[in-house]
Amino acid sequence: MHNMKMIRKMMFLLLPAQILLAVVGTINNLVSTYFASNYVGVDALSAVGLYSPLNMFLNATGTLLSGGCAIICGKLLGQNDHKKLQGVFSLDLIVASIIGLLFALVLGSAAALNQTSFFTKDPVVRNLFNQFLLGQVIGMVPTLLSAQLPVFLAMENQNKRTFIASLVYIFFNLIFNVTFVLFMKMGIFGVALSSSLGMWIFIFVAGEYFVSKKSELKYVFHSIPWQQITNIISIGFPGAASFLYQTVRGLIVNRLLEARIGSVGLSAFAGANNIMGLFWAIPSGMVAVSRLLMGISIGEEDRRSLIDVMKGAMWYYVPLMALIDVGIILCANPLTYLLFKDTSSQVFTMAANGLRILPLCMPFSVMYLHFVCYGQSIDRKVYINVLALLDGVICVVVFSYLLIHSMGINGVYVANVLNGVITTIYIIAYAWIKLKRMPKSIEDLMVIPKEFGAPEENRIDISLNTMEEVVHLAEKIQAFCKEKGIDERRAYLAALAMEEMAGNIVSHGFTKDHKKHTIDVRVVYKDEDVIMRIKDDCIPFDPKERKDLTENEDITKNIGIRMVYRIAKKIDYQNLLGLNVLQIRI
Known about the structure:
Layout: H1 2-40, H2 42-78, H3 82-112, H4 123-137, H5 140-146, H6 149-155, H7 159-183, H8 187-207, H9 228-260, H10 263-299, H11 303-330, H12 332-337, H13 346-357, H14 362-377, H15 381-407, H16 409-435, H17 442-446, E1 459-464, H18 467-483, H19 488-509, E2 519-526, E3 529-536, H20 543-549, H21 559-567, E4 570-576, E5 579-585
Helix pairs in contact: 1-2, 1-7, 1-8, 1-10, 1-11, 2-3, 2-4, 2-5, 2-9, 2-10, 3-4, 3-5, 4-8, 5-8, 7-8, 9-10, 9-14, 9-15, 10-11, 10-13, 10-14, 11-14, 13-16, 14-15, 14-16, 15-16, 18-19, 19-21
């Protein structure tokens, strides 16, 4: 239970920065939509809506790279392999930059040469779309980089910098829009240019940390592991596949709306989606946090923590999302008024209906996103590709086609809710088939491979809050070692080492501030070794630094730490996402 408390603390501690990261893009879309609809015209909003699938494709590419790298780097962190981590970090940044340049070249050429008839046949909307696209290509490189840097900032416990970079971006995006659209009358091109320049500023603020002396992660061109590209794509594709499928879905739904409802339907749908995008940042942030925690749990082969991350998502994230959805539905009209001032217009009514229906699919999406993320982490490719295909294309397109004839644009909104129902049924059905019984818990739904992590009989998990519990810890470790047939000397040394380190944390780490803290201990018997991991949420403390500092001083100082280093076969320390993680092998 205490491990669950620590996981919950980390989930909510990391969440604000990840939401703000996700919300940057959606605020960009919302600001663009606001200035397009209020200062350029309704047709300009149609151009913004037509760009949405392309933006989704960019998001897919960014997610593919960041998702694959987050899981690989999480495992490397769990294994304490910093050299490989540097290489993957460098590889990720250079690949994102190259792809961004290629996107800019292809799409910029298409817009400049008026080769965009695939998106719309309306000459007025097409001209506006070309102008908007030319402004967007200027920011494609930083857009892709913006999906990468916050992952690495989180690994270095620099979420505050993500906050600052995001706020700076939002500020400059607004300033640029006022300057280019209101004063300089640059129209829809000015709207797109504003977000592109703002994104460059975001990258400068966020990326500056990695060229400073404070950063442990450095760009190392000479040791880039180019062969890891295939691993990044293989691991990241399932998570990005949903965005790729949504690109196709967006193109098809746009065609349906244009054919059945007209440009007013495109404008209303774009308006509702861009407002909802502000709130979609919440589940996106949730799964970004869980992806990091799952990656580390898998790197450590920590079955218990992996389950607790998923439990945390289902117990805390899903209900929180449902509560937020109620607020969105109740505020549908005021939110719609941000974009459409005429409350009696058809476009206002259509967009407001979207804000009453679309939120219903979001709790389903939190569950879907987490099971896709988990499937990525354990390489369950067929499972997550089927999920992504159902969610990304099949369900929404099929239900939209069937319902748009009788329900109009509301049919498209309802299709998104039915999509959430179908993907949830698939998750349950998959577990039912694999277990050959109805799943009764979150652990059942996960269907964790039997070979993952140490089996229950070869591990113990203990949580500590007081010195009295530390004393009993030594007894439990000795009893565990005796049960595994480990000789008395090693059993005694293992218990002594863990008691010393845990006691040091309670005596010193717990007293450094006025917050409540927890120590999570895991002892595993593997390959004839006793492997002990101790994790706490106190201030960063590397015992090796303290040992080295006092090595040549008074021999009575830090005698306990020096003793542990003498009796241990191997000791590794690292600070992961603000947690001290110490692994001792006896």
